[in-house]
């Protein structure tokens, strides 16, 4: 069925990557176009049922085509092929023209509205993402095939995905998020290069905002004295050279929330409840604490010893939340781990029972067009209130840390103003010292932890000082 388009699409992508490597001189612009094309290659492989490599499974999403790698639509695939043909035929290699000709019009301007049955299924999946089709069918009073078809439709429509939080402390890793404001715009490409190349071994995600002066970098660092000390020393040197402002969050817990109660069927959009806007986040939560639903979360803990099997299983569940045991065994075999089915199944269940991993759903609805991050330095009690307060918004990822909390919000244009006002006005609240706002413009990283798994020798993480050094700054 796909014999004509498969080789052509992937061949055109590789050909165009070779051309722009010679013609786009700006490293930042070239990296963005390559990321765009890599996303398209993953998308094409998904449509054509071609197995993905581990690097492709953990590829970050290009911000302008958020959700593309998750939504297998044949018509979008055909549109990509047509666009690539034109770009190759007319030898288009300029940054602006490539962005325009490849991205513009790729998706419809208006999203298809979600209906009542879809919202009911999504609400149940949010509360019980581990439920089988049979369990979901009983709750919704429909047949299992109906549930399977609905899930497949939602994968197409909004990029529904099943994934897991991974408890980094469980695997003797510390999760740090460094939020910053750079001193000069022209310094940012250099900073980006440092994150991408010289500190890439332990970096998870880097995000810059539209001004290219604010952002955050997320790191996974071995929970051992020397690497922690060395990492903190290097961040201090970065601060001396690049940053006007910084917040360094040592993450202690992660949460997520989707507030389907605020979905308005008449407008097909999420709204913010009037009482929240009137009272403000903190007063609203204080007055309604007992009745407000709490977000689903994972508190970092350290428990029994782990080995590479545990770590790989956690990583694989983070990329495919509904992976069956046979699928997990196949992926384990590719990295040289072969264990009996009963062992793999038992270990997976143990990770879930002890909450080393926590299942949740995610989606990339075109209705939620903006992603905002707020880094808040505040008292621990205030952070606890804010985590519940943020869960009253449409779609939120939150974390608590040793100095406060991080709130990441996916929002629609209709309620964007209210959310920015609510979170920005926190600066005036007692117990809050600082609020940094980052509106995502460009994200890099989102790498899987699989890249460091072989550093675990059974007792501690092996590491080298060279992986933390910043030689191009002369900071040794």
Q: Could you give a quick summary of the protein structure above?
A:
The protein is an alpha+beta fold. The protein has helices spanning 5-23, 27-47, 54-57, 74-89, 95-103, 116-127, 133-140, 144-158, 188-198, 225-242, 274-279, 281-288, 308-319, 325-334, 341-353, 380-390, 413-424; strands at residues 161-166, 173-182, 203-209, 214-222, 243-258, 263-264, 269-270, 296-299, 357-362, 370-378, 395-401, 404-411, 432-445. Helix content is 43%, strand content 21%.
General description of the model:
There is one protein chain. This protein starts with a helix and ends in a 31-residue tail after the last strand. It has helices at 5-23, 27-47, 54-57, 74-89, 95-103, 116-127, 133-140, 144-158, 188-198, 225-242, 274-279, 281-288, 308-319, 325-334, 341-353, 380-390, 413-424, and strands spanning 161-166, 173-182, 203-209, 214-222, 243-258, 263-264, 269-270, 296-299, 357-362, 370-378, 395-401, 404-411, 432-445. The protein is globular. A hairpin with a 2-residue loop joins strand 11 and strand 12. It is built from 17 helices and 13 strands. The strands form three sheets. It has an eight-stranded antiparallel beta barrel with strand order 2-4-3-13-10-12-11-5, surrounded by four helices. Strands 1-9 form a two-stranded antiparallel sheet.
Write the layout of secondary structure elements.
Blueprint: H1 5-23, H2 27-47, H3 54-57, H4 74-89, H5 95-103, H6 116-127, H7 133-140, H8 144-158, E1 161-166, E2 173-182, H9 188-198, E3 203-209, E4 214-222, H10 225-242, E5 243-258, E6 263-264, E7 269-270, H11 274-279, H12 281-288, E8 296-299, H13 308-319, H14 325-334, H15 341-353, E9 357-362, E10 370-378, H16 380-390, E11 395-401, E12 404-411, H17 413-424, E13 432-445
Antiparallel strand pairs: 1-9, 2-4, 2-5, 3-4, 3-13, 5-8, 5-11, 6-7, 10-12, 10-13, 11-12
Helix pairs in contact: 1-2, 1-4, 7-8, 12-16, 13-15
